[in-house]
């Protein structure tokens, strides 16, 4: 007797180039079969006709309580939006990460993390910004933490730096250069927050190596990836060509239609779609809200549906080098089911209280109907 049989859903699994109506069977916490008209007995038979069945989504950028004071209640938010793996993007530093490891180890949700180059991470937020002076980087403590992680679970993904003017002040790009130098010495990748950078975007991109991540790629504050003629800058194309990863993670204000729309018209899509939600932005309309809302917004902006699901399943999973983001047989049964519902929906690049907010109107939402984590139903819409 199988645990779950999902019948007649439109399976979108970009890892396996699948986009068709199929059944999905789950047994012993893993995908056991994917195919037409499966003859399988199961405890839970899910009638998914008219729904989209995908691998569980990977949110590569969020801030998770208790790692951050501004963190989201991770399992409640993630499972209810089809997310089965989440990445905490630099809430903790080398001096604060260990106190939260028991939380990560016992969570049903898969939690990975970037380590902030500031030793205390984002503990000072929202009262004051973190200390990113390279003179205060504790390279020894960071090395020790990553060595320990390599022996005991591989939760950590790399180093995180926020490089906004209001954070780095007169240090300019020196914190970024020194973060990359430190990461190079430790064999790590870097994620860099790019909103309102302290110099030209082309200079920021020139600092990054293959596998490094620039997040908030569609932000519209300060120098951006769009030039004065309304086209994507050559430096962005060059960075992508050499292997820099572009991530869209919008939060409340790290996104602008004035950047996203021309870039998407030129097919300059994200490599990874994430949220950067905190307790300040989760479930806040008309901004990021959650991952399901991000999917609907970027569909409205013109990214094809199959490509959208690629950006938050197999793409981040491959970048993270984890066994997720796919419905391949014998992989962990992480599954999300959505129903596309036609309705008027408002998307914005700032909260409604911000006088600079730009608004666009969409015609549908992706409504999360059911989420499966390691073969267990962890969320189900009461009407499904």
In short:
This protein is of the alpha/beta class.
CATH architecture of the largest domain: Alpha-Beta Barrel
Q: Could you give me the name of the CATH homologous superfamily of the largest domain?
A: Metal-dependent hydrolases
Rg measurement, Å: 20 Å
Give a count of the beta strands, DSSP E runs of length 2 or more.
Answer: 18
Main sheet: strands, sense, barrel: 8 strands, mixed
End-to-end separation: 22 Å
Strand content: 25-35%
* Count of separate DSSP helical elements: 11
The overall number of domains is 2
Shape: globular
- Structural class assignment: alpha/beta
CATH topology label of the largest domain: TIM Barrel
How much helix is in the residues? 10-25%
CATH class of the largest domain: Alpha Beta
Whole-number mean pLDDT: 97
Low-confidence stretches: none
Write the H/E string, N to C: EEEEEEEEHEHEHEHHEHEHEHEHHHEEE
């Amino acid at each position: 007797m199988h645990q779950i049989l999902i019948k007649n859903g439109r399976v979108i699994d970009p890892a396996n180039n699948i986009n068709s109506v199929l059944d999905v069977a789950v047994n012993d916490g893993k995908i056991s079969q994917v195919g037409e008209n499966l003859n399988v007995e199961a405890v839970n038979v899910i009638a998914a006709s008219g729904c989209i069945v995908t691998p569980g989504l990977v949110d590569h950028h969020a801030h998770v309580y208790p790692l951050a004071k501004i963190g989201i209640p991770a399992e409640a938010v993630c499972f209810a939006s089809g997310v089965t793996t989440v990445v905490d993007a630099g809430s903790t530093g080398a001096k604060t990460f260990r106190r939260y490891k028991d939380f990560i180890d016992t969570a049903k949700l898969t939690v990975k993390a970037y380590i902030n180059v500031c030793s205390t991470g984002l503990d000072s937020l929202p009262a004051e910004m973190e200390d990113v002076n390279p003179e205060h980087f504790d390279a020894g403590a960071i090395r020790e933490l990553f060595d320990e992680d390599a022996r005991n679970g591989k939760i950590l993904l790399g180093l995180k730096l926020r490089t906004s003017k209001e954070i780095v002040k007169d240090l300019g790009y020196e914190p970024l250069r020194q973060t990359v130098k430190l990461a190079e010495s430790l064999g790590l990748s870097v994620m860099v927050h790019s909103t309102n950078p302290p110099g030209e975007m082309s200079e920021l991109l020139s600092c990054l190596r293959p596998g490094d991540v620039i997040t908030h790629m569609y932000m519209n504050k300060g120098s951006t990836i769009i030039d004065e003629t309304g086209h994507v800058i050559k430096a962005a194309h060059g960075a992508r060509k050499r292997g820099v990863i572009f991530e869209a993670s919008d939060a409340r204000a790290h996104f602008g239609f004035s950047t996203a729309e021309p870039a998407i018209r030129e097919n300059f899509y994200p490599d990874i779609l994430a949220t950067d939600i905190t307790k300040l932005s989760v479930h806040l309309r008309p901004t990021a809200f959650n991952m399901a809302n991000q999917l609907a917004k970027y569909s409205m902006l013109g990214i094809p549906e199959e490509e959208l699901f690629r950006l938050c399943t197999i793409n981040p999973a491959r970048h993270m080098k984890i066994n997720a983001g796919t419905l391949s047989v014998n992989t962990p049964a992480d599954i999300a089911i959505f129903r596309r519902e036609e309705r008027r929906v408002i998307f914005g690049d700032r909260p409604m209280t911000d006088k600079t907010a730009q608004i666009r109107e969409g015609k549908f939402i992706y409504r999360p109907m059911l989420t499966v984590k390691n073969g267990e139903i962890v969320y189900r819409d009461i009407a499904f």
